Amino acid sequence: MRLYVGGLPYQTDEQELREVFGQIGAVTFATVITDRETGRSKGFGFVEFEDDEQARAAIDQLNGSTLGNRTITVNEARERPAGGGGSRGGYQDRGSNQGGYRGGRRY
């Protein structure tokens, strides 16, 4: 199970994240998300456990706890929507003529 961890102190690195969650169970993956341009932490990350029960225990024990003077949020990560974003609104066929006027004639 993959967990979302929000509210991380900006100095938290992957090793510290792995250590904190490793006290609860066997962590198979831990990452802190960073800004592409600056390399600075965005204040959130993800952790995965070998076992779903350990992941649930981590949610119960660490959600709302304090890490480096900040209260962290821990919950089950949601899958990203397909397509990756970047689009504003639906597809519009700009080549079609949908009843507008062109050259004084109605199409």
Automatic annotation (TrEMBL):
InterPro entries: Nucleotide-bd_a/b_plait_sf, RBD_domain_sf, RRM2_NsCP33-like, RRM_dom, SLIRP/GR-RBP-like. Residues 97-107 have a biased composition (Gly residues). Keywords: RNA-binding. Residues 1-79 form the RRM domain. One of its GO terms (molecular function) is RNA binding. Residues 72-107 are annotated as: Disordered. This is RNA-binding protein. The gene is rpbA.
